Amino acid sequence: MSATITFTSQPRTACGKSATLALRKEGRVPGVLYGGGATATSLSFVAKELTDHLRRHSRNTVVHVVVDGTAHMAVIKDLDIHPVSRKLRHVDLLELHEERPVTLYAPLVIEGGDPIGVRHGGILQVVRDRVKLSCLPAQIPEAIAVDLSDLDADQSFLAADLQTDLNLLMPADTVLYKIISPRVAAARAAGAEAAAAGEQPTEEAAPEA
Question: Which fold has domain 5-96?
Fold first, then answer.
């Protein structure tokens, strides 16, 4: 687990569209902290602090959320981002407890050189870019490194191939990456071109009389 980051929050008593708009005009983002055994706590955060954090760190980076002077260890569980402006609209944080396992998704990061199959003209297909796992807060990874350099055409990289001692909550034969051979890639491209050409008019429009 990497060094933690502290966010100071403010209690949020008013909910609804107008209250949310007022918060955003103040440069704040609404959110909730849950998982402490009680009801979720409605909070607001400085938008710039959250967006700067997300630019530099994984969602799985453990943070300290200060609520009424008390720090709560937490991790970002969900984000609501505007589809056009990409501005953060809402954040859900899950409170962590040192001796209680937590279930979350860890992103996969490809390291090493290009796969053999790609160097020979194949295409790398990303089937899953994250894996579901369960671990204690001290074991939460920001990301899991994946080395695909030995992956050849028509081969797949499975969950069982990950170099990790963490408890993965997915079948061992789950495909994460695969290399599409040059022959299959060429056939797919040709099929896509043919389909696109089939949508075009095949005859000139008749001239007006």
Answer: Ribosomal Protein L25; Chain P (2.40.240)
